[in-house]
Amino acid sequence: MTAPTAARIAEKPRQSFWGLWNIGFGYFGIQLAFALQNANVSRIFQSLGSSVDDLAFLWIAGPVTGLIVQPLIGYHSDRTWGRLGRRRPYFLAGAVLAALALVGLPNTGLLLLAAAFLWLLDASLNVAMEPFRAFAGDMTPDDQRAQAFAFQTCFIGAGAVLGSLAPALFNWLGIANTAAEGVIPPSVRYSFYLGAAAMVLSVGWTVLRVREYSPEQMAAFEGAAEEAHAAQHEPLVYPRSGPFWIAAGTVLLALVAYLALDKQLYVLGGGLVVFGAMQIGVRATSAKGALAHIVSDLAQMPVQMRQLAFAQFFTWIGFFIVWIYTTPVVTAQAFGATDATSAAFNAGADWVGVMFAFYNGIAAIAAFLLPVMARRIGNAATHAVALLCGASGFVGLLVIRDPGLLLLPMVGMGIAWASVLSMPYVILTRVLPPRKFGIYIGIFNFFVVIPQLVVATLMGGVMRSFFPGEPRWTMLVAALMMASAAAAMMLVKENARASGE
């Protein structure tokens, strides 16, 4: 069992191979579920009658949920201590709720109900997933953190391979991958049942096999420097920019109404208004709770976190576009099918699962090679190179029509994905105060979620206006976003302590 043994020790012990294994293993089930979502939710929505243009909007529940849930879970997990420890109660609760959502999602015959189950699934995955990043920081010393994130990335890759391949594997076993209109194919349903079981078992393994350090031990590890930091920590900051955000949101809402723009933009405008009202509210009341801490810490982000935020914004626009539109692009371009009930469409959707499995397999391998590269050129430059590999892969999805050759772009996508899951967090956890890993990683998720929200609200209108009936051009947009993210990474200034593992 991975466990601390001393009551007060000055230096955090290094983890063994199996210690790192146990710390990261829960991510196997989380990512298996996440892969099932990525590869099959568009297919489920189309099977239930959604048009391609509406897919992005139906995915909006996930980003909105993540925007709310992750910082709150981070804040509370920083302050939790009970029989199960600090982070583990959130792992377990998220796993159980996600398993219920995985069972329900493919068994509904109604599009809106399927969207509701997607919301529950995404909320639950956020509850389970957010503390895992902070968990790796809690349980490992500074110089072992890249290894901890590499193990997490490996399990993410392995879970994603199985999750992406599951429908095709069940079909190979003789379980049908087609069904009548409005019915989800049995191979997809069984895959989601597999995901529910894996979620509970793998997260349960981490919960049972790892005992977290107590608050007293964490205080000893953080030492005098951290205690001084805590003593000198500035009081809560109450930003004055609330009226600006309300005005910006109001203008956007008015433009949507006056110019008859895509109604999905109401979500974005409303979000800006809510954010501004939240800032005004905490300032007016001098609040001290979770919301006030989130607003205050957002205003006081370390400089490296601000620099990383720009790269994250462009990165996740690119990936979210690819996750939403790969199924309609591949089924139409490589399999010549747009009818969601046809055998050709479902064969193409299964092949998307194979493609996603392949890139996640590449990511699992690349996870252990990236730290080697980072020691030579630095974490930021390594991440920039990996993002350019992803951009080249997205271009490949635009131009390649042969199903077999579509695996080639997945190599670049896999390298980029491995880096996205590790390099930003290696940089980040080395400049954050350990006692605030949870809340800051939750805030960092804003720059994962906001771009997803932008895609979900804007991409449907972009499709209708610029690419009617041609979803493949979304891959060019994704490639340009990844190239922009790579350029933004070159502006990240790592200090000596964060210059590589």
Automatic annotation (TrEMBL):
Transmembrane spans: 17-36, 56-77, 89-105, 149-170, 190-208, 242-261, 307-326, 351-373, 380-400, 406-427, 439-461, 473-492
Membrane topology field: Multi-pass membrane protein
Major facilitator superfamily (MFS) profile domain segment(s): 311-501
Recorded coiled-coil stretches: none
PROSITE patterns, sorted: MFS (PS50850)
The keyword Nucleus belongs to this UniProt entry's keyword annotation: no
Pfam family, one: MFS_1
KW Transport (keyword) present: yes
Record keywords, A-Z: Membrane, Transmembrane, Transmembrane helix, Transport
Subcellular location: Membrane
PANTHER family: SOLUTE CARRIER FAMILY 45 MEMBER 3 ISOFORM X1, SUGAR TRANSPORTER
Protein name as catalogued: MFS transporter
